[in-house]
Amino acid sequence: MSEFNSNINDEIINSLKLILGNQNVLTDYEDRYCYAYDATAIGEALYLPDAVVLPENKEQICQIVKIANENNIPIVPRASGTNLVGGCIPLKGGIVMHLSKMNRILNIDRNNLICTVQPSVVVGNIQQEVSDLGLFYPPDPASLKVSTIGGSIAQSSGGPRGFKYGTTKDYVLGLEVVLADGTLLKTGGTTVKNVTGYNLTQLFVGSEGTLGIVVEATLKLIPKPEEQQVMLAYFESIDQAAEAITGIISAKITPATLDIMDKNTMVTIENFHHVGLPTDMEAVLVLEVDGFKESVAVQTRQIIDICNQFGAKNIRVSQNQQEADELWFARRSAFGAVARLRPNVLTEDAVVPRDKIPEFITKTREIFDKYNLTVCIMGHAGDGNIHPNVSLDLRNKEEAENFEKAAEELFDTAIELGGSLSGEHGIGMLKSGFMRKALDENSIKYMKEIKKLFDPKNILNPGKIFHE
Amino acid sequence: MNRNFKLLCAALSLRGGAKAPTWQSIRSFWANFKIQTDPHSTSLRSVPQNDNSTISNCSNGFKSLNDYAEDVYKCTKCGLCQSVCPVYKATGLETAVSRGKFTLLNGIINGKLKFNKKIAKNLELCLGCKACYDFCPSGISAEEIITAARHESSKINGIGFIKRFILDNFKSNFRLSLLKIGLKCYIVTLNLFQGLSCFRLLLKPKDGKMLNQVQHDNSSNKFIKYLTLFNSQLKENVKYRKLKSVKPISELNIVYFPGCINNYVNSSVKNAVLIVLEKNGFRVNIPKNFTCCGIAARSSGDFESFSRLAENNLNQISDNVDYIITDCASCGSAWEFYPDFVQGKLKEKAEIIAEKTININKFLAEREIYFPENVEINKKITYHDPCHLKRFQKVFEEPRKILKQIQGIAFKEMKDADVCCGAAGTFCISQSEISKAISSEKAQNIIATGADIVCTSCAGCKIGLSQGLIEKNSTIPVYHPVELLAELYLKDEK
């Protein structure tokens, strides 16, 4: 067993087994091989952990982290492993902590509109459970059927509804976090108002597992909107679509979703799913309005008027739930369709001010065209978060290198336009090299100081966020 | 209990010889696949060697892992398969889900990993339920790839001892008959044991109740649970009776493939199919030398056996039949797989016949069949979708349609009706703990409907559902929709 990448040794593995039981500590090469990746396309690179542990409660997590800290062993928390920036990849070996066995909703409090969950509860399951009680947990990352709340908190995930309802950070009231020294920290509480000292809760939201391991979370819920209405509006140019977006927002309408897809995306979806999208249009807006029945009807009428005013060629409005599902299917199948074009997909996540969207989309297309890469552009137009999905084969060295160059130019463009590197995926290992483009020296200095304070030995998800 | 089962298996394998053969000899004996019983006896014989077949070395005709290299590589690792994989839900292991397996297989294709025992074990962790296929953005058929990988793995690592034994039994009608006799003897013996006070003492649960009283109490006694499971599998719900047809006799040339369970373990569903078809004016023909469809051999990676069974079954019929009716979801899929596992002229025939293979539910639902008006079945029914029927053959509305048309039946849909029952061929034996966890979840959903009867259309699912219900101490019986229809007809006749 001399092949360990970290300070781990047989004695430590035995003590892990004592804490967790033999079946919850995986050390076979083949098992570890399946924990060397997440949803990030990293080609042939292999970052093998030395051990995988599957804790069943927070006390076990405290004990494991304590051992890791004492022995300087890196530890990478992981739940569904759907991260897109390499957040769950054990860059320095060590221990991968798979939280899949901590997947229970502990409590839904209808009177206080909160729920308490373990880290590995799937976001979609939370939404379903609270929805059955007439409540609503809005953050809806595209992967919500599989991605977990622990990952959502680590990356502060968003989703199409971010424009109206905000993102994960707006729904976390309190956390229980295991710190690097193995102690348990409780932050925040169960109330919406709470200014008792520093807001440590928000410090952990979006910290990408580098400051502590979230082992329990209390989330804010809101009443479920009475009704929803989905619309697709097709435009002959991106500019027209962008004008319509500005028109809708300046008319003081706040759709729950205001997404945009470009021509390439529509053509790709049609190739694989035949959902009836026009392939001769340059852009489609996917709109969802929600609220009370009457207000939904008013908003729908207004949006149709505005879209027509800005030259929409056609508008499809859902007449019932089934049609709404069909229209959503068109939007949600975008990633899958791109995935079928070529073997690998890389999704970027830059964000720009809303009024810069047309410019950003045009420039994005220019950049990827320049490097001969197939790109399908989709994104959350309402909040300026654009996802170019690049379809390629990473075995082709030239393509892989071209992608690197294109991505860097894309970040430069976003920052030039007043935006930033990531809207909802995070920095992880993929974008850590670009942090200095987006942040000034002082910001990075204080961020690193915070990291040092919480994790002096740099054992928690090392190599993420900051370039080493 | 497992030990008992192994002993039973061992006892059953000693067929006819004066000297107890070693496992090695038994394995090579069956692998060679020669006719061992009297070749003139018709019904109880092993699969004959097919003289007409052009295949000698079957392995050349099968798709290998390398044929799927691009499919394996194009897994984007999005992880969506985790949301639908019953094995992942039960184990929480990345290795259990398709994404993990594709990573391992990609490692093998690239030469970074080798087929070893550990990989063979990980490959076992798949039900082949195809749930992830519908969900996979890249549209990769994990079931097909994992099966092909098992085939290659089995050549290096072999197929597990118990699995091998079971598969070998299903290859031979004679051995299946023995298995049934063995099972019956076993159960009678166990029942006898219950009667003996010394065994009562041994097996008596803490609350002091007698065994037969506690069968469905909160007893965790594995022994009783297995006994109940075996009993439930052997109980015949429908006895055959020739009924007078109510419709004009059809000219359709129909072959009915009853499968090995119906022929050699429990004929209830077969009886029901015959009753229902005859009542509706359809004459059916069951060739004598049909064997097991072989599906369990295919999913275990024993393509060679599957191919031989396919050849045999295909050779029993001509391609000018109008329909091959199957009642079991797995058998139906097997007939659809056959074209990929036979070669030459037989392949063409298999393709024609695959087109004509139809599940009994679909066959009946597509026709104006007889529903008596003066008799009814006053029961609340729920239906479990066998994976092989819903996701492989796309039949799921038809059985519901039939059930809902029966007078008196209140149909209640269960939660996750199309999630695998956990049996999955030999999975329930090789991975019994995971299988039980999945079956229990299923049983929970069945019980939650408040149904009196749960229906399904697969012999394998019957085991999975019974296993789960017994785990949950429920007595809800498992029926094939056709069994209910036959009961209705029998009632009508009285």
In short:
The complex is a heterodimer of chains A (468) and B (494). Chain A has 468 residues and is an alpha+beta fold.
Tell me which CATH architecture of the domain at 105-223 in chain A applies here: 2-Layer Sandwich
What is the arithmetic mean of pLDDT of chain B?
82
Which chains have the largest interface?
A-B, 41 and 30 residues
- Overall SS class of chain A: alpha+beta
Number of strands of chain A: 18
Identify the CATH class of the domain at 372-493 in chain B.
Alpha Beta
> According to CATH, what is the class of the domain at 105-223 in chain A?
Alpha Beta
Poorly predicted parts of chain A: none
The coarse silhouette of chain B is globular
Cα radius of gyration of chain A in angstroms: 23 Å
CATH architecture descriptor of the domain at 372-493 in chain B: 3-Layer(aba) Sandwich
- Oligomerization status of the protein chains: heterodimer
Name the strands of the widest sheet of chain B in spatial order: 2-1-3-4
How far from one another are the termini of chain B?
A: 44 Å
C-alpha geometry of chain A:
globular
Rg result of chain B: 23 Å
**Percent of residues in β-strands of chain B:** under 5%
Description:
The complex is a heterodimer of chains A (468) and B (494). With 468 residues, chain A is α+β, with helices and mostly antiparallel strands. Among the domains of chain A are: 10-98, Uridine Diphospho-n-acetylenolpyruvylglucosamine Reductase, domain 2, CATH 3.30.43.10; 105-223, Uridine Diphospho-n-acetylenolpyruvylglucosamine Reductase, domain 3; 227-335, Alpha-Beta Plaits (2-Layer Sandwich), CATH 3.30.70.3450. Chain A contains 16 helices and 18 strands. Chain A has helices spanning 10-20, 29-33, 58-70, 123-132, 149-155, 162-165, 200-204, 238-250, 263-273, 293-309, 321-332, 334-341, 357-370, 397-416, 435-438, 441-454; strands at 25-26, 51-53, 75-78, 95-98, 105-109, 114-117, 135-136, 172-178, 184-188, 213-220, 222-223, 227-235, 257-262, 283-291, 314-317, 344-347, 374-380, 385-392. In chain A, a hairpin with a 4-residue loop joins β17 (374-380) and β18 (385-392). In chain A, α9 crosses α12 and α13 (357-370) runs antiparallel to α14 (397-416). Chain A is globular and about 70 Å long. In chain A, 53% of the residues are buried. Chain B is globular, with a radius of gyration of 23 Å. Among the domains of chain B are: 61-157, Fumarate Reductase Iron-sulfur Protein, Chain B, domain 2, CATH 1.10.1060; 254-365, Rossmann fold, CATH 3.40.50; 372-493, Rossmann fold (3-Layer(aba) Sandwich). Chain B is 52% helix and 5% strand. In chain B, the strands form two sheets. Chain B has a four-stranded parallel sheet with strand order 2-1-3-4. A four-stranded parallel sheet of chain B has the order 6-5-7-8. In chain B, 48% of the residues are buried. Chain B is mainly alpha-helical and 494 residues long. Chain B has helices spanning 2-13, 23-32, 69-73, 86-91, 98-109, 117-124, 131-135, 142-157, 161-171, 173-195, 197-203, 211-214, 222-234, 259-265, 268-279, 295-299, 303-315, 329-337, 345-356, 360-365, 387-392, 397-405, 427-430, 432-448, 459-471, 481-493; strands spanning 254-257, 284-285, 323-326, 357-359, 380-383, 410-411, 453-455, 478-479. The two termini of chain B are 44 Å apart. In chain B, α24 crosses α25 (459-471). Classes of the chains: A alpha+beta (468), B mainly alpha (494). The A-B interface holds A 26, 28-31, 33-41, 44, 46, 52, 54, 80-82, 98, 100-101, 103, 122, 124, 143, 145-146, 333, 335-337, 339-340, 342-345, 395 and B 70, 73-74, 76-80, 82-83, 88, 92-95, 100, 103-104, 107, 110, 112-113, 116, 118-119, 122, 136-139.
